[in-house]
Please model this.
Amino acid sequence: MSEKEIIDKIFARFEEFINSNSQMLVNREELKVVWAVRDRKVLKGFLRIGRKHIPFYAAFNENNDLTLWIPGIGHIFFENKTIQTFLEEEEEGEE
Model:
């Protein structure tokens, strides 16, 4: 899978990706992507956590690792292997 395909799939399923990951320590039913815009390897927008709308910024680096930044919470770093595991599980679920 090409770098562009990986980024496209993660950003297309961004809400699902962050909710499936054990690094996120919020109530998964309450975490929603309200609005987001993409510029190549960067996604920015707003998450709804409970009743609050909080800005977020997600960007892929040159190794296809993903950093998610949420003000007031901090940075969450997802290594490429975490992303690959998510994509593999998604492919298995589609079969």
Observations:
- The chain is about 35% helix and 40% strand.
- The beta strands are 31-39, 42-49, 52-60, 66-70, 74-78.
